[in-house]
Write a structure and sequence with these properties.
Largest sheet: 2 strands, antiparallel
Number of domains: 4
Order of helices and strands: HHHEEHHHHHHHHHHHHHHHHHHHHHEEHH
Radius of gyration: 27 Å
Strand order of the largest sheet: 1-2
Length: 683
Amino acid sequence: MEGASPEGVLLAGAIALVALSGLPGLIARKGGSGGERLSALLVGAGALLGLVASARVLFLGGGFRVELPSPLPGGPLLLAADPLSALFLVPVFLVPALGAVYGLGYWPEAEHRRDARKLRFFYGLLAASMAIVLLARSGVLFLVAWEVMALAAFFAATTEDRQPSVREAGWIYLVATHAGTLGLFGMTALLARTTGGFAWEAPDGGLAVTASSSVVFLLAVVGFGGKAGLFPFHFWLPGAHGGAPSHVSAVMSGVMLKVGLYGLLRVVSLYGAPPAWWGGLLLLLGAGSALFGAALAAGQGDLKRLLAYSSVENVGIVTTGIGLALLGRSAGRPEWVALGLGGALLHVLYHSLFKPLLFLGAGAVIHGAGTREMDRLGGLLRRMPRTGAAFAVGCAAALAFPPLAGFFSELVVYLGLFRAFAGPDSSLLAAFAAPALAVAGAVALAAFAKLFGVVFLGSPRSEAASHAHEAGPAMRGPILVLASLVAVAGLLSPFLAPGVDAAIRAWVAPAVPPGSVEALLHPVPPLASVVPLGTVAAWGAAFLALAALVAGLLALRSRRASLVRGATWDCGYARPTARMQYTGSSFGDWISGRLTPNAAASPLEVRLPEGSFPRQAAVSAPAPARDPLLLRLLEPFASRWAQRFHDLHALQEGRLTIYLVYVLGTLVALLAWSALRGWIPPR
């Protein structure tokens, strides 16, 4: 539809409110709370408008297409909304709104006078730029919004830049994101050369696949995969997400990673018949990312870094579904498309709920206990019962426990993989991806068992943990909302399926001419027709009702029963201490050491007692597991080139005459090169 529309007006207002949400804080009186409250109110109002517009596009068939005049090269700026972009807009508006409220308690200006205003400004700019990226249909506008998003994320993530680790993680992120942006510049240029313009629109039947198309695809995988945290382009993610304020980590992990996946989906949708190796490559990268992310998560001793590596695993699950959908388009198997992309899109939605829940819960732990080192925590369930219960819901959803949110999306992806390798036109890559995801799930179970057990169960391992306290209402409110959504979202899958079907059709539509034989003979089936979502949801609701009934009866019985305390058999240890408990390092080092041996922590150093009357024994804990890509490849590469550039410092004489000689020599070399080119006869 050309011109304005209700959805377009709503989205324009939503983006404006969110983008400008940081300005009241810059103008308001320092030390007051009025500016930050107004900022959170603007983000919430913008989110409400954006969610209404997204729902209209997703479920009511709305949408818009607008061309705006622009002084930039590449023609007018094209913005459009369809069900695919609307589905990704839902977390873009929902999560930042909850994070803005959470920030009132987690990062108040009264306690962070130096950087609270800067954080709110870039926080709103980050959310608004992500929305523009999802609506952009011209390469120039897309790249501008993409760069604004990257810089806003950098400044928001490095809020605590006084810490050396945060500065280091910020610079690694900046280098990684701009390396990916360089690939996107090349991709955009090749697309413009193919289509004759910068508009990201395909003719009926889609673009023809040529040699340059494969280059476009590979550049898209590098550029968008880097932003999504897909292995092996993930190396920036753990540090950036771990060092950022927790509500910023929630937005980056729950939302920004999905923007990278959206870009990849949008570009590959322009091609009519993608080759099979495109889908195969994404299957391999997705399965590898899931395995690698789960293994590195199991070896982490830092609460937020563990959650960050878990996001690498979940991005791998989504990428596996996208790869299966591409294989389905190549093989003419529409049910593979429905299951692969349907599961991927459901996981996009559900991961944007349970991962922000976990990051906000981690922020509550840091706020209440003063540390994010798991080996210094323990016993927090008794002191922070509400946070612990919400965190348990998030962990269960991340592990795809039925009937929570993550279960339904992973079930759809698994069913798609089973169909792909068990039926006709079977794919061997799908036969590899299914068990790889299963192994990743088992390793993730160990990682989250370690996380919840070490942090919330047992006894406090430090004085700070023993005095931990619940967060305030501003922090607990968003955590409770997300926990409630995670608990019921899976049961709502049958109602979300029509919106997911609309998004799948929007992805397939550019490649299939309307009324063609392909559209008539091979339509993508509705998701509910290939997966019994209603039946599964009904059984899940019955299970939850039964679990609630049993829990209620046990609680009632415990209240009526008299409690008797007494000593138990101590197994020869009269006074066990908190140091005798399992630690996060001992629990996870075995797993990470075998799946990623180059990243394993150093072994325990034990000094045993000696002599007849020993005085002292000691055990030193291992260092946390490190990313093998950084450890074995990127850090040596950077060090080597840093040394070479350092050797060039000798050329910096500091004298103007020397620099003029350099300029003269360069000019002479360029003139000589031009002359030589003129002497060479043309072929």
